[in-house]
């Protein structure tokens, strides 16, 4: 996890979150059932440098959105810590952009009011001027502030959500599947907008997605999650060009290849195990094409395997062994 980089805006260390999903006490007493705990996030560590995008990818239920909620302060971690590097003691401002732009906007409020909500401390005239500027920044008209959410398309509503996040002068945007509800052509427009805003305003992004094609366009570093744990983490180009963990390789094989559409692809066997009863050892071993007996007994820890790349896999040779072969 340690990158020895003083520009890290967010540092996450050994972060864990356990949810109690047990039945009510009286029901448990009647059925003699025990408590049921889900370890949604299990010892995750990473850093996000200022002005960059860190993406977390993985199947549904792997813990991606839980990490976002923990960083946003919507949930409290069960263990570990989250540190923010703020300049001159100033409070870090962060905002979330949600997956569903319809559900995140009040249908009874005009768009201008939704965007202006974080700026209630400003005089009315200054607030209206700022709303117009933000709408123009995300590619809409200042006059659109007088309209209601239902008068916009899905892509336009997501632009409005981004403008509302910027209204709070956020330095860090938590983007939880921000394009998954949009058509492919609209996804590209929103991604281009996010990239342009990052370059112009120096924003830092935590990008959550299951779509590797989307992540590849925007990310600087990437973390691959499986059942609550990071299994591979490193620079986006290194992970995409030379995936080392078997799960990462299988995920990348799901990306359509225009140049080789009929290529042989190893199917991802089986279903995601239940987080209520995770497998012993490496949680991926029931689905792994390289499984060994050691994988069934011992959980692998994240180890450096190349420059800036860490992998949790018994089958991958760590960097120390590569430098000092027996």
Describe this structure in words.
30% of the residues lie in helices and 22% in strands. The protein is α/β, with parallel strands linked by helices. The chain has one domain: P-loop containing nucleotide triphosphate hydrolases (Rossmann fold, 3-Layer(aba) Sandwich). The strands form 2 sheets. The protein has an 8-stranded mixed sheet, sandwiched between helices. The protein has a 3-stranded antiparallel sheet with strand order 2-1-4, covered by helices on one side. The longest helix has 18 residues, at 184-201. The radius of gyration is 22 Å and the shape is globular. The chain starts with 7 loop residues before the first strand and ends with a helix.
Brief description of this entry?
With 326 residues, the protein is of the alpha/beta class. 30% of the residues lie in helices and 22% in strands.
Strand order of the largest sheet: 5-6-7-3-8-9-11-10
What is the residue-mean pLDDT, rounded to a whole number? 88
The CATH homologous superfamily is named: P-loop containing nucleotide triphosphate hydrolases
Rg value: 22 Å
Distance between the termini: 26 Å
CATH domain topology: Rossmann fold
Task: Sketch the major β-sheet.
Answer: 8 strands, mixed
SSE order in H/E notation? EHEEHEEHHHEHEHEEHHHEEH
Strand content is 15-25%
Number of strands: 11
Number of helices: 11
Q: How many independent structural domains?
A: 1
Level-2 CATH architecture = 3-Layer(aba) Sandwich
Helix content bin = 25-40%
Shape: globular
User: What's the CATH first level?
Assistant: Alpha Beta
What structural category characterises the helix and strand content?
Answer: alpha/beta
Unreliable stretches (pLDDT < 50, length at least 5) are: 1-5
